[in-house]
Design a protein that fits this description.
Blueprint: E1 2-7, H1 17-34, E2 38-41, H2 55-65, E3 70-77, H3 83-96, E4 101-106, H4 113-119, H5 130-141, E5 166-171, H6 174-183, E6 187-189, H7 199-209, E7 221-230, H8 233-251, H9 261-267, H10 273-282, E8 284-287, H11 288-302, E9 306-310, H12 316-330, H13 334-337
Parallel strand pairs: 1-2, 1-9, 2-3, 3-4, 4-5, 5-6, 6-7, 7-8, 7-9
Length: 340
C-alpha cells in the first residue's frame, strides 16, 4: 500500500510558530528516510492552530532537503489565486525537483469569509469558476493549448521542462469528486476532516463519473486520515489527549495552539466524557500494527488506491516516532525505519 503524509504546521503551546514551520521541513526528510510515498503540506489562513499559510514556500524548502519523496500541496486553495500564477509557481517547483511535485487543488477558502476577502477581494466570485480555473491550470502546467478563443491563449507558463507537476483534486464533499472525475484527475478525500462522513459516497461518485484522461486512463483515489501510533495503546492515548481537546474546542469555535497531554486532560474534564470516549475509540490511535491494520481495513473497504496520514502531537519527537512505528508496521525498509 502506498502511504503518504499530510503536515499542517501545527502551533504548539509554549513554542514559537517558526519552530512549527521548521519542524515541517525536518519531518519531510524524516519521512523520506522511512519510505513514505508523498509529503503534502496544507494551506490555512488566519488560523491560530494551523500556521502553514504558504505551502509553495514549504515545498521549495522541502525540495532542497530531500531526494526521492514526492512533495505537494494539500492543497492550494485555488479561488484565492489566478490559475496562471499557480501554474508558474509549480512549474518553478518542478524545475527544482523534477518529477517529484504534486499540485493538490482545493475549492474551500481554508479560512473564514473575511480572511478570504483579504486574500483576494474577488474571492466570493471565484469558487463558481473553479472548474474553468482547473481546466486552464491543467493546460498551463503541461504547456498545452487553452480552449478555443481563450483570451489568454498566447500566454505560456514558464519554465518548461520534460516533467510536470501531478495535479490532484482534494475535497471533503461530492463537489471535488465530480470535478476530479470530469477532468480525469486523481482525487483525495479528507476523511479526517469530517470523521469520514460522506467519504464513501464521494469516492463512489468519483469512480462512477470518471472520464479517462491521457495521463490517467483509470481513476486514482485516496483518503487522508488522522492517526497516532506509539509503543502501546496507553502511550498513544496519552498523547492523543492533546488532539482530543483541540477537536472538542474546535467544535465550540475555539482555535488555539496544541496543549500538552496533561494540560489537555484537565481541560477536558468539563466536556461530555461519553463523547470524548467515542472520539478516542473511533480514532486511528494505538500501536503501529493496530493503526496500520485499521488504515488498511479502511482502504480496502472504501476501495481507494492510496492513503495519507496526518498526526498532531505536542511533543515533536513523539510525532516523529509515530511515523516510524507506522512505517515499520507497514513493512517499509526495516533498516531505514529502525533509524528513527
Amino acid at each position: 500500500m502506498r502511504l503518504s503524509v499530510l503536515d499542517q504546521s501545527i502551533a504548539v503551546a509554549g513554542r514559537p510558530h517558526d519552530h512549527s514551520i521548521r519542524n515541517t521541513v525536518a519531518l519531510a526528510k524524516h519521512c523520506e528516510m522511512l519510505g513514505y510515498e508523498r509529503f503534502w503540506v496544507s494551506e490555512h489562513h488566519n488560523h491560530p492552530t494551523i500556521v502553514g499559510t504558504a505551502p509553495e514556500i514549504l515545498i521549495a524548502a522541502i525540495a532542497a532537503t530531500t531526494d526521492r519523496i514526492r512533495i505537494g500541496s494539500a492543497g492550494i486553495m485555488l479561488p484565492h489565486y489566478a490559475p496562471f500564477k499557480v501554474a508558474e509557481v509549480f512549474r518553478v517547483l518542478d524545475a527544482l525537483a523534477p518529477g517529484r511535485i504534486d499540485l493538490g487543488l482545493g475549492r474551500a477558502p481554508g479560512s473564514d469569509g473575511r480572511t478570504a476577502f483579504a486574500l483576494n477581494p474577488a474571492a466570493n466570485e471565484r469558487p463558481e469558476h473553479f472548474p474553468a480555473d482547473v481546466r486552464d491550470l491543467i493546460a498551463w502546467v503541461h504547456n498545452e493549448p487553452l480552449v478555443d478563443r481563450h483570451p489568454f491563449a498566447s500566454v505560456k507558463a514558464f519554465p518548461h521542462g520534460v516533467t510536470a507537476p501531478e495535479i490532484w483534486i482534494l475535497g471533503s464533499s461530492d463537489y471535488g469528486a465530480q470535478v476530479a472525475a470530469l477532468f480525469g484527475l486523481p482525487y483525495c478525500y479528507a476523511w479526517f476532516f469530517s470523521d469520514g462522513a460522506g467519504g464513501e459516497r464521494a469516492i463512489k461518485l468519483y469512480k462512477e463519473k470518471y472520464r479517462p484522461s491521457l495521463r490517467h486512463p483509470e481513476p486514482r483515489s485516496g483518503l487522508c486520515v488522522w492517526a497516532l501510533a506509539a509503543s502501546s495503546m496507553e502511550e498513544a492515548q496519552h498523547h492523543f489527549t492533546s488532539r482530543a481537546l483541540s477537536r472538542m474546542n474546535r467544535d465550540r469555535g475555539i482555535l488555539a495552539p496544541l496543549e500538552t497531554p496533561d494540560v489537555a486532560a484537565r481541560a477536558l474534564e468539563v466536556y461530555d466524557q461519553d463523547r470524548i470516549e467515542r472520539f478516542r475509540r473511533d480514532s486511528f490511535v494505538g500501536t503501529g500494527p493496530e493503526v496500520a491494520a485499521r488504515i488498511e481495513e479502511l482502504r480496502q473497504r472504501i476501495g481507494v488506491d492510496e492513503m495519507a496520514v496526518v498526526t498532531w502531537t505536542h511533543d515533536e519527537e513523539i510525532r516523529r516516532a509515530s511515523y516510524a512505528h507506522l512505517a515499520r508496521a507497514m513493512g517499509f525498509s526495516p533498516a531505514v525505519a529502525t533509524a528513527a
